[in-house]
Design goal:
By secondary structure, the chain is of the alpha+beta class. It is built from six helices and five strands, in the order αβββααααβαβ. β4, α6 and β5 form a beta-alpha-beta unit.
Length: about 190
């Protein structure tokens, strides 16, 4: 019995969608540090493709880490220009291997996750699909969520009545918004 050798693939190089469709190549990366008026800042990442598709992500941050995360976002912006929004895993690997030389940190992973979320968001918009469809489809019809009632910054018993009054107002608004549980943490 003889076996025929397998046919050689026509092209061994991976296909880059951005080369075939330049409109999916990333043209611009921006980030915004937002102070919500309490606790820590929020850092949002915005990418835009040459075709005008916009994707948003959020880079997790902690107290006093904003400048380090912003520094990584600035530097990673040099790596992402011209890359395809559909190549998020390739970009992640390049960042880990080349940029970080396999020495990650909370700040690096925070910046990277914000960019990757923005890439997924832009890819979903380009395809006219929600991101969960790109990741294998929905898992549940609904999920239970709760509203947070943080007691951050309370230091004396005198402050608790004011806090409880604010919690009652906030809890009422949360219930009106459809939440069935308000979690108060101290």
């Amino acid at each position: 019995m003889s076996f025929a050798p397998p046919e050689e693939p026509k092209s061994a190089a991976p296909v880059c969608v951005a080369e075939q469709h330049p409109s999916t190549a990333i043209d611009r990366v921006e980030f915004f540090v937002v102070n919500p008026g309490w606790r820590k800042n929020l850092i949002f990442v915005r990418i835009e493709t040459q075709g005008g598709v916009v994707g948003w992500g959020e880079a997790y941050t902690q107290y006093d880490r904003d400048s380090a995360i912003v520094g990584h976002l600035k530097e990673l912006g040099r790596y992402i220009g011209g890359r395809d929004i559909f190549a998020s895993k390739n970009f992640t690997q390049i960042v880990i291997d080349d940029y970080a030389q396999r020495r990650g940190s909370l700040e690096l992973y925070s910046a990277l996750s914000g960019i990757e979320q923005a890439m997924w968001d832009a890819a979903g918009k380009a395809l006219g699909q929600p991101v969960y469809n790109l990741m294998g489809g929905p898992v549940r019809e609904r999920i239970r969520a709760y509203a947070n009632g943080w007691s951050y910054g309370l230091t004396t018993p005198v402050e608790f009545p004011r806090y409880l009054s604010a919690v009652a107002i906030t809890a009422g608004r949360s219930i009106a918004d459809g939440f069935r549980l308000v979690l108060r943490q101290q």
